[in-house]
């Protein structure tokens, strides 16, 4: 068992400390060339790199085939658009930069840290700690932007990389501390992130043990809000001027326009096939996204086919 644990640790460290490097085209003005050079040298230190990797291995240790899996999902970085200094890990999917900007990691969602008196979701603090561990003593990361650079809250949207080429989103997905979420038009690393999540789901790691397991529509609380993964049979596919609607079988106490529904805005239909949505009638699906109240319904907006699965 000790030999197996050792091998797993070595494999995970090979992933964390891969030889892939990112090359920056733009450097944040708040960071001097000398500080970047010092940080790069610090990252290059085998002792520091091994320390960070070993810590993170305790989070992601598991299957002996981890190295082979992560090798396929390392999401090659290529060229980063900006090199920045991190001042704070806000939560598992958000960073605060030294210049005050916030960075929301593209392609993943981690459990929410409790604020304003609300409790944290299970594993929220573990996800934040894992991100802190990944960064280690290094404060410099590379940002690779997708088609949409900012969200409606003014946060930067980016794929985030360590200087050794490690993709942070992949590391969190592989550890089972995040779920993939696709928000068009930022679909650059879609397949890569999907593969990383699948590896964690197969072994029931982290959030896949409980918190992100699909909840049957009939069991979704009327007070449910935020990110959820739900499962149900599509009773009807309807259309309105601005949306296509997937309506589930209502509970006995609910009317036809109550309960839970999935909405696909017409602005997102370009990502779906012509008849893909209408063919869902009578099928069981798993959908992920954010639930919010709308009139007497709880509505989840579906942005991309990758956030939906057809199941038996």
TrEMBL record:
InterPro entries: SNase_OB-fold_sf, Staphylococal_nuclease_OB-fold, Thermonucl_AS. The chain crosses the membrane at residues 49-67. Keywords: Endonuclease, Hydrolase, Membrane, Nuclease, Transmembrane, Transmembrane helix. SUPFAM superfamilies: Staphylococcal nuclease. GO terms for molecular function: endonuclease activity; hydrolase activity; nucleic acid binding. Residues 80-210 form the TNase-like domain. This is TNase-like domain-containing protein. It comes from hydrothermal vent metagenome.
């Amino acid at each position: 068992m000790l030999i197996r644990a050792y091998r797993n640790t070595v494999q995970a460290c090979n992933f964390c400390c891969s030889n892939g490097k990112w090359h920056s085209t733009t450097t944040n003005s708040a960071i001097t060339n000398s500080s970047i050079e010092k940080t790069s040298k610090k990252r290059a230190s085998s002792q520091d790199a091994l320390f960070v990797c070993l810590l993170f291995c305790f989070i992601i240790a598991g299957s002996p085939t981890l190295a082979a899996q992560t090798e396929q999902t390392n999401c090659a970085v290529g060229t980063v658009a900006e090199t920045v200094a991190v001042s704070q890990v806000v939560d598992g999917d958000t960073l605060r930069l030294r210049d005050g900007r916030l960075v929301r990691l593209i392609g993943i969602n981690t459990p929410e840290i409790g604020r304003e008196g609300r409790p944290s979701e299970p594993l929220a603090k573990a996800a934040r700690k894992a991100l802190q561990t990944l960064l280690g003593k290094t404060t410099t990361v590379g940002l690779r932007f997708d088609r949409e650079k900012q969200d409606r809250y003014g946060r930067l949207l980016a794929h985030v990389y360590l200087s050794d080429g490690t993709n942070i989103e992949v590391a969190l997905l592989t550890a089972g501390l995040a779920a993939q979420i696709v928000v068009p038009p930022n679909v650059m690393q879609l397949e890569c992130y999907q593969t990383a999540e699948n590896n964690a789901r197969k072994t029931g790691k982290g959030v896949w043990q409980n918190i992100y397991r699909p909840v049957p529509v009939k069991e979704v609380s009327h007070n449910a809000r935020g990110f959820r993964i739900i499962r149900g049979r599509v009773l009807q596919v309807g259309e309105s001027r601005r949306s296509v609607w997937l309506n589930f079988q209502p509970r006995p106490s609910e009317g036809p326009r109550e309960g839970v529904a999935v909405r696909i805005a017409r602005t997102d239909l370009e990502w779906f096939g012509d008849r893909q949505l209408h063919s869902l009638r009578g099928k069981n699906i798993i959908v992920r996204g954010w639930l919010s109240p709308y009139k007497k319904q709880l509505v989840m907006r579906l942005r991309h086919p990758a956030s939906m699965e057809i199941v038996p």
